[in-house]
Amino acid sequence: MWEDIDSEDSFEPLTDALIGHEWAAGLLQSSIDSQKLSHAYVFSGPAGIGKSYLAHHFVMALCCETPPPRVEGQLGFRFCRTCRACRMIREDKFPDVTVVGLDWQARMEGSTGSSGANANLKIDTIRAIQLEISRAPSEAPWRVFIVEDAATMQPAAANAFLKTLEEPPARAIIILISDSDRALLPTIISRCQVFELRSVPTAAVEAALLERGAEPQPARTLAALSVGRPGFALRAFYDKTHQDVNDRDEAVMHLEDLLKSDRAARLAFSEELNSRWMSQGERRASVLTMLNLWLGWWRDLLLVYNGQARYATNQDKLDTLQTQVDRLQLSQIKEMLQWLTRAQSELDSNVSPRLALGDLFINHLPRL
Ligand SMILES: [Zn+2]
Question: Class of the 3-196 domain?
Answer without folding.
Answer: alpha beta
